[in-house]
Structure formats: structure tokens, C-alpha cells
Amino acid sequence: MSNTGGVLLVTPPTSYRLPAYLRAAGQLGLGVVVASQGHHPLIQADFTGIHYDPGDADWPSRLAAAAAPHDPRIVVATDDSTVEAAARVAAALGLTHNSLRSVQTARRKDLARQALERAGLPVPRFRRVHLRRPLAPQLEGLTFPCVVKPLGLSGSRGVIRVDRPADMGTTCARIQTILRHGAMGEEGDWVLVEDYLPGREVAFEGLLVDGRLVPLVLFDKPDPLEGPFFEETYYITPSRLPGPSQSRLVAHVAAACEAYGLRQGPVHAELRVEGNDSWILELAARTIGGQCARLLSLGTGHSLEELVLRAALGREVAPVALEGGAGVLMIPIPGHGILRRVEGVSAALRVPYIEELEISVREGYELVPLPEGSSYLGFIFARAPTAAAAEEALRAAHGELTVVAMPVLGSQPVRNIRT
User: Fold this and answer.
1) Do residues 390 and 382 make contact, with C-beta atoms less than 8 angstroms apart?
2) Cα–Cα distance between 90 and 99 in angstroms, integer?
3) Candidate from 41-45, 182-186, 377-381 with smallest mean pLDDT
4) What are the backbone angles phi and psi of residue 406, rounded to the nearest 5°?
5) β-strand 146-150 against 190-195: which pairing, if any?
6) How far is CA 368 from CA 66, 257, 335, 376, in A?
7) Which of 26, 199, 231, 275 is the most exposed place for a label (fewest CB within 10 A)?
8) Which of the 8 DSSP states describes residue 418?
9) Stretch (H or E) spanning 383
10) H helices within 234-318, ranges in order?
11) How far apart are CA 325 and CA 307, in angstroms?
């Protein structure tokens, strides 16, 4: 493959999104250069790889200088953790990009809330709380229930609902322990505390092209997400929200993008819907996480990564046309333990409308549920004549699975796992 006139992919060393982007680039005839912090090769020999060191104060210009001979036309982040790096190097190369401030706002929950509030968009009451200072004076006047969130972690990691003032101390201590291993600097010292928002939850996927939002797909999350933790499970499309509600929701997402200052690239938003009102829970300048992006390929024949690259190149993209229904289950980790095996996979695959089932972890892996955990057991995909049938198939397939695990030394007994 030619390595000129293509895409510079900025990726973390552990990305499993990279192969999908490489396939999409190949389908579009693009040359590829991969930039990563990793020292070891991530890709096949026929692609160019560049290492960069974020500890070097001048790394964006160094990376731009190394990439420039390959004539990249676009810069794309494969994962949430490299969105800011992609914006920096795109600026150094003089290529189209979101402003650094906008992507920082999208990644930081406190900055996002402040931006929405300044724009006059609906936000719950919120405040920042410093974990290393006395809590009592910082929590005066707080109403319950509330939700405590890390400033920067994704995937609901560390997000906890608190119903009573007496539980705030233990909750903040628990999140502080999580942050000790997953955040640095200011993000390791502060949390966001905001009012709990009732209602059903949905997820939105779209693309920004010169500030114009192109909706791609709206997912229902049919399981009630009421806490104390907020593990995502089922994503079902098309959404069963009424058409006017969907239109208001898309307009809300577009207004939030404008409030953040985002103008280019993928947008993934999580929202709560209650009656005619919708509330932004999160709006990120990236695609949907995990393997869920494969749902678009399953339902339309066009991968999300292909659409991202097409939009970045200035080619036409349109809302996804999906016939029937589709869904994915992010298989939850039912408890803490060491995985021995997952039984019932063959039976689950025999459930009508189930298309794929992937167990992402292997024997010997330590299973860690939310709020400390940051991964899923795997994914189940379904295609069916209707959204309701897709959801029913996923629930039936999940019911066929049994997770066999052994306890971790010193841990509490595990529920819903056979030992």
C-alpha cells in the first residue's frame, strides 16, 4: 500500500480499534501512517509507524516533522485517549482539526458542564469537590440523590450514585482509590458531584463536518440505569423514541457541540430523556467505544470508521439507513473473580437473530466489575426484523451464558458466577 497522501492515525499502544481503521483506510485506498506512544510495532510491515513521547515538551512538532514526508491529508484519533494528541499534531501539520480547548472540554466532565451552562443549555446542579480537602464544607447544601464522577475517566468507571449524606465519605474514598491508578494531576484530586437525573438513557452517534452535525444512529438503552453504578449493557436501534423527541434530542446535541467549540469529526453522546426534556450526560469527540461500532457494519454494510475517514476527507456522508432492528449487548462482568471459562456460547449462537458473539477475555484474566473495572466480558450482536426482536434475542442469548470463575484471594464471595 502507498504510504503517501493518506491518514495519520494517532492510537494508544493497546488499541483494538486500530485494525478497523486500517481496514477502512484500505477500502478507501488511503495510505496509512500510525503514530503511537508504544515502542513495539503495532501493525504489519507494509504500514509506516512513528513513535512519539508525550513527555517531550516539543513532541507535536517532532511528530509532525516525522509524518510530513508521508503527506498526510487528515489526522484521526482511534481512541478517546488520543483525541487531544491528534488535535495537537493536526495543528502542527496545518491540517483541519478541532481546537485543543474544544477537545479538552469534551473529555473533561467539569469543563463540559461549565460550557453547557454558559450556553444556556440544561445542566443538573453541579460542583467540583477536592478529594484531599475536608469534605463537609464542600458538600454544604448538597441535595440527594446525587452522582459522583471522576473528571476524566470514560465508560462509567468510577461513577457512583449516592442517596445519603452518610455515604459520601466512603464513596469519595472509593473513587480516590480508582483515580490513584487511572488519573494524574488535577484529574486525580477532584471529582464532579451533580444532581441525579431520572429518565431513560439513549446514545447518539454522529459526525461533524465544518460545524454541521450529521446524525448517524440513535440507540436505546432499554435497561434502567439507576445506579448505584451505571454499567452499560444493551444498545438497540432504531430508537423507539417518538420522532419529535428524536429531533429535539439531535438539536440538543448540535447545540452542545457548538457550546464546546467542536466542528470536525465523530461525536458520541449519552443523554437522559424525561418527557420532552433531554440532558447531556456526556458528549465526546470520538466514536462509540469498545466493539459497538461493529453494529453499524452489521446493519448497513458501512463501517463507522469508514464514515469517519470519509467525513475527514470532505466526502459526502449521510445518516445511516438501517433496515429492521439491530442491537449489541456489552456482556457485563457479574462479579470479582479469576475467569476459568464461559459456558453456553454455542447455545447462545443458536438463538435466532444472533449474528456474532465474542468473548474478549481469556482464562486466567481477573474480572473486575464496575465501578473499579474498565472492560466487558465480551459482546453479542443481533440483527432482526424489529428493534424489539433484536433486544429479545440478545436477552435470550445472554441467558444461555454461565461465567465460571474462582475467587480472588481476600475478595468477597462472588454472586452470579459459578465457582
Assistant:
1) yes
2) 10
3) 41-45
4) -115, 150
5) antiparallel
6) 39, 33, 7, 9
7) 275
8) B
9) strand 378-384
10) 243-260, 294-300, 304-312
11) 20
In the predicted model, is pLDDT for residue 280 greater than 50? Answer: yes
Strands (E), 151-276: 160-162, 190-195, 200-209, 212-221, 234-237, 265-274
Q: 3-state DSSP call for residue 359?
A: strand
Rounded CA-CA distance 66/294 in Å is: 32
Task: Report whether 194 contacts 125 (CB < 8 A).
Answer: yes
Q: Are 285 and 266 in contact (CB under 8 A)?
A: yes
pTM over 0.85: yes
Reported confidence tier of residue 418, pLDDT bands at 50, 70, 90: low
Number of Cβ within 10 Å of residue 9's Cβ equals 31
The cell for 373 is 473495572
Say which range, 38-42, 121-125, 248-252, 328-332, has the weakest mean pLDDT: 38-42
What are the cell numbers at 163?
A: 442517596
Cell of 266: 465523530
Q: Half-sphere exposure of residue 201, counting CA atoms within 13 Å on the CB side?
A: 21
Residue 354 CA to residue 345 CA, distance in Å, equals 11
Structural domains of the chain in order of their starting residue, each with its CATH number: 7-97 (3.40.50.20), 125-195 (3.30.1490.20), 197-323 (3.30.470.20), 325-419 (3.90.600.10)
d(CA 202, CA 90): 32
